[in-house]
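Researcher: Quick sanity check before group meeting.
Model: Go ahead. Protein one:
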Amino acid sequence: MMQKTTLPVSLSDIEDARALLEGVSVCTPMEHSRALSLDVGSEVYLKCENLQRAGSFKVRGAYVRMAKLSMEERARGVVAASAGNHAQGVAQAARRLGIKARIYMPLGVALPKLTATRDHGAEVILHGHNVDEALAEAERYATATGAVFVHPFDNADIIAGQGTIGLEILEQLPDVDTVLMGVGGGGLLAGVAVAIKSRAAELGRDIKIIGVQAENAAAYPPSLAADALVPLHNVRTIADGIAVGRPGQLPFQIIRELVDDVVTVSEDGLARALVFLLERSKLVVEPAGAVGVAALLEGKLEELGLNPKKTAVVLSGGNIDPLLMLKVIQRGLSAAGRYLTVRMMLDDRPGELATISRVIAESDANVTRLDHTRIGGSLSMGDVAITIDIETKGHVHSETVLNNLRAEGFQPMIMN
């Protein structure tokens, strides 16, 4: 049910934003996921914002915010800060509107996001080690120069722009009963919640809205519990797009009133979700965009006591660094029991490696890398240490391989 509290963004604001976005953003596909549906036991659909222009939903809010600037404000230029997706959204909107854009990005930002932002014509300044530090510098620049600061999530126009996704979800999947999406600062979750909860109230329906955060960057659960903004002092996650240490004030007001729950997922869960989407849905999604799928795979809806019939998951972005993708795929395969690294101590005598190779081959597994050393402070004379990377077919198969090695007298230690 809608709350009586007056919220900073209304359904009419989102409808106005949609009119502004005509011809700017695209209505992204809603794809049925048979694989996920079978896995979780209910119908699951994927809202593919990873296929949006500039690779994420961010262009929606950025364009709405900037299209409303006066000519005098446009002449002063805009400044923003982002780990990548908001940067690309602002840069793309600025180019379309003819506005000069300066964007602060954290040191170590993914190269594809940095390159794409510059390719859209924005001036990029690398500053700070995270989004919060880059944000602070962007705000200082705005104060010093008069440039208009385009916040990534703590602005009503930004929230309204992101909320247009909610209108599309209801049109593409009218009988949806649960919607999951990632949350960093909260602009996307807040906007979609306003759109869907408002329309649901008009129809007399109850549609659950669930936010998902990476467990190492989860500021919303403690903030909601305290009914106040609780900043995190340490944010560390592969989901850089939602690595935000402090919720936005405006999104928090909305999320507190309208969102049913915010859950967290593990880093291994994020990696597993990314691999699942690659293999089973043929979709490239960055870790921040895959958190909703991770929540389904980790059984978070069941933990909340929910048993939806039709679930929509927003895949919020697809801008992933190929180098990070390599690491995440390996971690995801490991989390799914399909990639096993073991270390064993052996007597330095002929035939040991041959025996290990035979056991692994007879177990129908495959060695992809082997490291063999006789030198090290922990090794005694006559000892050898080997580390082996093995491709397996899942957790049960991995355990079979390990048991077969133990049966031959070896003592494999799993390396994380």
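Researcher: Fine. The other one?
Model: Protein two, sequence then structure:
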Amino acid sequence: MKEDFLHYVWKFQKFTTPTLLTVDEKPIQIFKTGQHNYLAGPDFFDGRISIGNQKWAGNIEIHINSSDWYAHSHEKDIAYDNVILHVVFNHDVEIYRKDHTIIPTLELKNYIPSEILQNYNALFSKNKKFINCEQRFTEVDSLIVENWVERLFIERLELKSGLLQSRLAVLQNHWEALLFEMLCKNFGSKVNGASFLSIAQSVTFHVIQKCRHSPLMLETLLLGQSGLLDSDINDSYFKAQKKEYAFLKQKFQLDISSVIKPQFFRLRPPNFPTIRLSQLASLYSSTPQLFSKVSTIKSIEELISIFKISALPYWESHYNYGVASKKSSRKLTPNFIHLLIINTIIPLQFAFQKFIGIEDSERLFELAQQLPSEKNSIIEKFNKLKPIAKTALESQALLQLKTSYCDKLRCLECAIGNQLLKH
């Protein structure tokens, strides 16, 4: 058993009887359980209770055993001086204040319904492979799941927005520069995301703006900053770009010492960094003031049309320098465009709304619901339990559920886990 289970029992008053007694058999009446504290200090602030005929206002501390009070050295911490009730599963020792008065104790083991305790033990048993509730996931009411999914989607946007706001402050509120960094990272996908972000951050955005009038110049800049022009290859296109990059490097005083070199290993050729960086150059050369456009667009069709770009002509017959391949268009695929919108544009729009003090989450819901669900192992496993993810809104929510709740065993803070405990 973990303390968070006792937090749940106390917070939602899941008792077998409304009549509670302290260990010395004084009646307890709860007026207010208090504000749940997830940081250091007592577990619940500002509770309101009565013990016998005496009313109390103060903090509530919860432990598995009473002796945990001393094990955690609370008797030495002034933050615990205002504890008015010690709630424990098992009472094994008396707890005293500094003035030697006893802190009243509520022992919960005789007040917790056996069904809830059984459900808790089943939920946290160790025979699970994917998530704690995988064996009972289908039992959860669909309405509860739908409401929870919407909350998780917003929670994920809030999480991403916090990261964007931090970076925006570094960029002195330059939204175009922030968008460029985000797009670079997501053009790199999972394998080269960190590398592409380091490329974006290795050059100031005003240099990108100076080069964007020429797709070839911008491509040269990005490939040069990636380190992919450092070798010697007997290819005219490569040699021309290497020469041009040497000029740009001198002109703008460029440095690549902080850049993480992109990887080709285990990537399908359409995802090679050469192709992705060229596509990124095409995007920024073809769409001036990109942030101004994507931050206000309400139509998914308009957003998709912006990303209908191709790599430069050389790459139609190459995936890497000096190695010819079958000629074909190197366009961004629909699936890749969808990922850019869900991982870049929607979080950016959400962050921008918060920045200017306007909230239009319904529009972001609509955009995400018009995109198909992402395809990865986590979403596939959830859908095997219960076919939930049909749109990007739902797949994003499930990713948030897995990483922020399931993996961290926060079942008691999850609407699904709470529902299963009640059954």
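Researcher: One line on it for the slide.
Model: The chain has a mean pLDDT of 94.
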